[in-house]
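W.,

You were right to be curious about this one. When I first looked at the sequence I had no strong expectations either way, so I just let the prediction run and decided to look at it fresh. Below is the sequence, 73 residues in total, followed by the output.
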Amino acid sequence: MPIYEYECRDCKLVFEVIRSFGSADLPLECESCKSDKIERMVSNFYSMSSGPISSTGHSSCGSCSGGNCSSCH
């Protein structure tokens, strides 16, 4: 399951919650002040692989590796 980051609009606490994709936007309570004014944050992630990059797309698009971004044809 993914880890989502949330910020409390009242006390500004940033905290993480492990939730399913379908539960990501369900209401939460702040772990610190118990406020229900919680906002999901946009999280960055980094992934690294020692294997070759594989593409499932059939495009020669240079802007993505999958051939299915909005600029691919």
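Here's what jumped out at me. Strands lie at 3-8, 14-18, 38-40. And, maybe more interesting for your project: The chain has a mean pLDDT of 80.

Coffee later to discuss?

I.
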